[in-house]
Amino acid sequence: MPTPAVPVVDIKTGLATVDWYDFFRDAFAGERLGDFASDAAAAAGGVPMFGLYRTGSVVKVRTT
Known about the structure:
3% of the residues are buried. Helix content is 22%, strand content 23%. It has helices spanning 20-27, 39-44; strands spanning 7-9, 16-19, 52-55, 58-61. The chain is elongated, with a radius of gyration of 16 Å. The protein is built from 2 helices and 4 strands, in the order ββααββ. It folds into 2 domains: 1-30, no CATH class; 32-64, no CATH class. Strand 1 and strand 2 form a beta hairpin. The mean pLDDT is 77. The strands form 2 sheets. The chain has a two-stranded antiparallel ribbon. The protein has a two-stranded antiparallel sheet with strand order 3-4. The protein is of the alpha+beta class. The longest helix is centred in the middle third of the chain and has 8 residues, at 20-27.
């Protein structure tokens, strides 16, 4: 694992945007997952392709 001072670089601009630990803190910040009955419902609810949602207590990945 890199030291906390290693920056995460935006590949489009080449500029450091955040340090790696900020990236992981934000990525796993405990965002609540929307509860949808199907991929179609998740899509209609704004879940992006390969985004996470749940059906009850089951976590799913939107694939369609």
